[in-house]
Amino acid sequence: MRRGRLVLFGAAALIGAAAIGAAVWQREPPRTEAAIIDRPVFPDITPRLANAARIEVRRHDGTVTLERRDGVWGIAERSHYPARAERVREVFTGLAELRLIEERTGNPDLFSRLGLEDVTVAGGTSQLLTVKDGQGNVIAELIVGRRRIRTAGNLPEAIYVRRPGENRSYLAEGALRLDTDPMLWVDREVIDVKRQRVARVTARRAGADPVTVARADPATEQAAVVDPPEDFKPEQHKVDDLPRALEWFSFNDVRPAADLATAEEAGETRLVTFDGLTVAIRVVKADDKRWAIVSASWAEPPAPLPANPPEQMLTPEAARAEAERLAQRLAPWAFQIADWKADVLTYRLEDLRAPQENPS
């Protein structure tokens, strides 16, 4: 009798152990090391990107949209002002090369630690990238989070990613440089006319007489005020500001010039180079900012260039081609410029006068 009970007890113990073993087997084992996945995030995406027509980058506090028209990518939020082609290529290259490396948390409460919270979450850092074709079909869509910083070794860049609507997150090898500021997608330097090329500049502030400064020849270092009053003593660095006014000329914002047709006039500048380029800039006021409307033309230089001109000088033929490019590219637009730059472009004679010395 006692032996029968022992047999039954042993059988029950075996059944219990098997049940516990099955439960343990069905539970996800603790991971001491992340499994290496190593597969593309978007397999075979390269041919489909050739049909891309729209790129949208969303954050909780803003959106930028790039659209392709007639083969040119432009910023929708800036009336299709041209985007930098290399920035678009960077996005497409990043999508094609991005590879899943490790699976990370599936707990939505922890997504913010990786920068992968939904883009509707206020104060979040996640960015939602969507690429569509001309028919509106989605080619790629991905929530992009924080970069993982690797301090040791020459290791490739990595970022955290998640597909919208999924509770799986991953570490991916590769780079995706995204921004929702439209100005970070454009080339903000629109003109670069070196002072060595500049022969003459005339500036006029609204309501004031124009002032002209000139350089005698390309080798002359300093400019001089043309026909100054007898008692006029210039502040030389300000006089030289005018020939330098179009060096690395950049902007903070852009809009169609037609939008400012009735804006308040602040002044204008006309700059002529030794090689025949003329750039005219109207400065207008709108929305408490100052905007530059630029036109360019070319005319045969009145005097031949010196035998050994400065390296910054162009040939008349090259200057003419430059004028045509500038006129076509810049004429439709108004560029919001820094106040100090607008001040230079609208200098008055009094602005160029040296301060009077205090008698001691």
Based on the structure, what is the oligomeric state of the protein chains?
A: single chain
Distance between the termini: 127 Å
> Can you write the helix and strand succession as a string?
HEHEEEEHEEEEEEEEEHEEEEEHEH
Instruction: Give the structural class.
Output: alpha+beta
Overall shape? elongated
Q: What percentage of residues falls in helices of 4 or more residues?
A: 10-25%
Q: Overall pLDDT, averaged? A: 89
Rg to the nearest angstrom?
32 Å
The description of the largest β-sheet is: 10 strands, antiparallel
Number of structural units classed as domains = 2
Q: Number of helix segments?
A: 6
List the uncertain runs.
1-34
Description of the structure:
- This protein folds into two domains: 36-185, no CATH class; 189-352, no CATH class.
- Helix content is 19%, strand content 33%.
- It has six helices and 20 strands.
- The chain has helices at 2-26, 46-49, 85-97, 236-239, 316-330, 339-345, and strands at residues 36-40, 52-59, 62-69, 72-75, 81-82, 99-103, 127-133, 138-148, 158-162, 169-173, 189-191, 198-205, 211-214, 224-225, 249-250, 253-256, 264-273, 277-286, 289-298, 333-337.
- A ten-stranded antiparallel beta sheet has the order 1-6-10-9-8-7-2-3-4-5, with helices on one face. Strands 14-13-12-17-18-19-20-16 form an eight-stranded antiparallel beta sheet.
- A hairpin with a 6-residue loop joins strand 9 and strand 10.
